[in-house]
Design goal:
Rossmann fold, four-stranded parallel sheet, 41% helix, binds phosphoric acid mono(formamide)ester, binds norvaline
Length: 310
């Protein structure tokens, strides 16, 4: 079966480990795998802004011997009347894989449903699975393991990072705590899927609106913007209810003494995270950003190898 990576649980626990192991290997030997030699091209399409995802995919595809074709989706015929399905049929004739940052998850599912090549989610409203692969690689580097660790996300429980950390975290056997203000609850069907996956791996999902108790003893604290791309004018107060969820020195002090702090970036300093924390010794955000490169290269190699095995 052609494999896509549209959400974190598209990889089984064993497959996730394979990708993370390969990411570690590629980090040590960046030019050691030439999965896109030829060069084969990869379409990298953005309907929302990006710094890390764009740069890390472009650099990574080049390091794999391939050629990235980066396109602003808003300038494609997709941005006018051409359907996602017709676009997908055409892209499959040109490229070895499609990487897409878009809005609704249904859009990337429609792309994948027709595609003859792997489709990779570079962020949708609901999930950001490439980011969480890099996050897991970073956590494993620092803590030496993933299974059994407690990871607390503080912020908008309904955003792409919360959902992906939940699915990706339990796939790795982690205990994932989501602390979000009332009214910003995680999608119930994602929570149910994560809990089903957790039954296989020994992980768990805990939801709460109490940032202090959610942070208590955690090995990893994670936060993200309170207002994701596309939510700027959604009419909700995205500041007041979130203030108690800011990761500051006091909240960090409630976590385990070896706790690390992640943020996918871009950070809104003074809002979801203080300067003291993001610039402090517990912060691993720059390694986390670097690992986007290694994790995504590993994912591309893995998906293309799966395709060859078909
Ligand atoms: N973390 C992340 O996806 O960053 P960009 O929006 O800059 O790609
Ligand atoms: N939740 C954020 C992540 C940015 C990388 C957003 O969707 O804007």
């Amino acid at each position: 079966m052609l494999r896509h990576f549209l959400r974190d649980d598209d990889l089984s626990p064993a497959e996730q480990t394979e990708v993370l192991d390969l990411a570690d290997e590629l980090k040590k030997d960046p030019l050691g795998h030439r999965a896109l030699a030829g060069p084969q091209s990869v379409a990298v399409i953005f309907e929302k802004n990006s710094t890390r995802t764009r740069l890390s995919f472009e650099a990574g595809i080049a390091q794999l011997g391939g050629h990235p074709i980066t396109v602003d989706g808003r300038n494609m015929q997709l941005g006018r009347e051409e359907t996602i399905e017709d676009t997908s049929r055409v892209l499959s004739r040109y490229v070895a894989a499609v990487v897409w940052r878009t809005f609704a998850q249904a859009r990337i599912e429609a792309m994948a449903s027709i595609s003859a090549v792997p489709v990779i989610n570079a962020l949708t409203d609901d999930f950001h699975p490439c980011q969480v692969l890099a996050d897991l690689q970073t956590i494993r580097e620092r803590h030496g393991t993933l299974a059994g660790l407690t990871m607390t996300f503080l912020g908008d429980g309904a955003n792409n990072m919360a959902h992906s950390l939940m699915l990706g975290g339990v796939t790795a056997g982690m205990h994932v705590r989501i602390a979000a203000p009332k009214g910003f609850d995680s999608n119930a069907s994602v929570v149910a899927d994560a809990r089903r996956r957790a039954e296989q791996t020994g992980g768990s999902v805990t939801l709460s609106d109490d940032p202090g108790s959610a942070a208590e003893g955690a090995n990893v604290l994670v936060t993200d913007t309170w207002s994701s791309m596309g939510q700027e004018n959604d009419g909700k107060d995205r500041v007041g209810p979130f203030r108690p969820y800011q990761i500051d020195g006091a909240l960090l002090a409630r976590a385990d003494s070896d706790a690390i702090v992640l943020h996918c970036l871009p950070a809104h300093r003074g809002w979801e995270i203080t300067d003291e924390v993001i610039d402090g010794p517990a912060s691993v955000v720059w390694d986390e950003a670097e690992n986007r490169l290694h994790a995504q290269k590993a994912l591309l190699c893995w998906l293309l190898a799966e395709e060859r095995r078909r």
